Amino acid sequence: MPHEEHIIVNARLDEIRSALQSSTGATTYRFTRRDIENNPGGDNAPLNTLLLQAPGVAQDSFGQIHIRGDHNEVQFRLDGVQLPEGLSVFGQALMTRFAHSASLTTGALPSEYGFLQAGVIDLTTKNGSADPGGDAAIYGGARDYFFPSLQYGGHAGKWDFFGTADFVHNRVGVENPTSSFNPIHDLSNQYHALGHLRYTADENTRISLTGGVSNAQYQLPNNPGQQRQFANPSFLDSALSQQVYGSVDSASLNERQKEITDFGILSLQKDMGTVSLQSSVIARYSSLGYSPDPLGDLVYNGISQHAARSVFSTGSQTDVTWHANSQHTVRFGYQVYVERNVSKTNSIVYQQTGIEDDGTLVYDGSTRTVHDGSGRTGWMYGLYAQDEWRPVKNLTINYGLRFDGVDEYTHAKQVSPRINIVWRAWRGGVLHAGYSRYFTPPPFELVANTSLGKYVGTSNEPQTLQNNTVKAERDHYFDAGVTQTLLPGWHASFDAYVKLAKNMIDEGQFGAPIILSAFNYRRGQVNGYELSTNYEHGPLSLYGNAAWSRAIGKDITTAQWTMDPDDLAYIQHRWIHLDHDQRWTASAGGAYSFFYRTGHPTRISASMVYGSGLRADGAVPNGRSVPIYATFNLSLVQSFRDLFHVPFLKRTQLRLDVLNLFDKTYQIRDGSGIGVGAPQYGLRRTILTGISQRF
């Protein structure tokens, strides 16, 4: 197939594939290749920093984001194909470098989106047609930051291919638990790779194979000055205490965690005139392993636990679009996943020897080992059908049904009606309103069948032995908004939303291993407002947004053993803020390219992130927020078309990035709140430089 024809055919098939996913009535924020490059750090920046440019996206520790007041119900897709959930906590298995472009869709979603519905993040992966040639880069700087990367794409005949790989080494793998400039014991080594191979059989048929791998190892940072909680006073003064404890200090612990993710997607895309489809098979393996400090974890936490979890998911997804006539576009399809979840722990705990008069439990130096493990195979599935109906000019009604089911730790089903109305009311103005019924299965990999009875009479005995199985969440979701083109290149939007939830799913970190666990609030409510604007013209691009939200819950009804009994009693009959509730969130940024039309443009860009603070314990659980903060990032990129005057070398790019420009010291978490582990502080000022060479 000739070069030009190959590119044209693949561009057409890309458009058809994109049309398989209707976002009619939902709110979609798109990140072009230019937007990705304008973001300080560019392809080197973590994916969550790019997503913070969208309204209603709040940052949390461990690289997590919260979209519209939900904890972590974020769905990731590659080229329209949903990836099953994984176990990655700190890092992100999907790198910004993988994406040619990206989008975030939120609001009242059409019926083809199921399972995770707070936000749908779809990455259009780089490929040999849109991203030909190679690029080698080295990036690094402060805190031993070293980040080499390589990518190459091309095509031959009916084939095109793309591959990219990188290695990340730094000493800020996990957020610092103290306000110090540098964390203690925070080394991280990670590597990531993505490969994409496509065969275009003819102008209407394409087969693609995408595979990726992420392997990350982390030291968990230390927090000096912690109290030894599991040594009663009489034992502390004994000779045995000196023999067992020695000089154990919380500043010298050696806790580590390893996270692995592998995935593969094989897709067939076919266009048959009025009918087009994409059918895929998906596999994903994800594992997480925690290695304790053998003595330190015992002294400070009362348990030294080796913990390992893994989940292997395989499934299929098919989406079909039928252009029935000029008024009706019908879409239907299915998703089904079979998953195997395995959890194993080996724990050393203190044996309880008595109770003092004031009720304090007494332990001595004797320990015992507890082995625990569980495994379960389950599946979840969804079917949908919807009709995009245009009854009159400028009016579109998208209505449909979705049927979902889950048979894993919990067993539940639901039929979910959805409807969205979009009206182009005036020139440049669009009104939309929608309702969606949602069904969210609990995250299979975050539910472990812990044998609580094994820990009775030890330093890890739960304060309550109640452990009801985590349930599926059921929601009524309402959304309405308006978008307006103010001037050519200048757009603005306003959105309002309400979610009424039954069995609202939340997640928390309980214990030393950084493994999230799921639980339910019997009732939940989330509501908010978003304002967004962006402008792009020639060398200038600007964006800004602000969002207000409130997320509250009442009565924790599952996984109660992880909670403080007093908190459970208070929450049972009272509404509280969820731990990830942030009242105000905002971000803004811009970029300008000098010498825009020359072979040596100079681009300067900046970004700002503001948060009014996530929740922390006050007089009541989650009763206050941590202090407000605003951080600024700055980037300078100089490009040269032919710096070295070598025929096979193309663009050379030099970059300088300054993260947290004004060295703002700010807390993300203070260590208190429902399901909150250690304190976390944001990254202090970090200066990074890099060079990349196209070839």
Automatic annotation (TrEMBL):
Q: What name does this protein carry?
A: TonB-dependent receptor-like beta-barrel domain-containing protein
Q: Source organism's superkingdom? A: Bacteria
Q: Where in the cell is it found?
A: Cell outer membrane
The entry sums up its family as follows: Belongs to the TonB-dependent receptor family.
Alphabetized UniProt keyword annotations: Cell outer membrane, Membrane, Receptor, Signal, TonB box, Transmembrane, Transmembrane beta strand, Transport
Question: Which GO BP annotation is one of this protein's?
Answer: siderophore transmembrane transport
InterPro entries referenced in this protein's UniProt entry, alphabetically: Beta-barrel_TonB (IPR000531), Beta-barrel_TonB_sf (IPR036942), TonB-dep_rcpt-like (IPR039426)
One GO MF term, please? siderophore uptake transmembrane transporter activity
Q: What Pfam families does this protein map onto?
A: TonB_dep_Rec_b-barrel
Keyword Ribosomal protein in annotation: no
What's the protein's topology in the membrane? Answer: Multi-pass membrane protein
Which residues, if any, are the signal sequence? none
Any one Gene Ontology cellular component term annotated for this protein: cell outer membrane
Q: Which residues form the TonB-dependent receptor-like beta-barrel domain?
A: 219-661
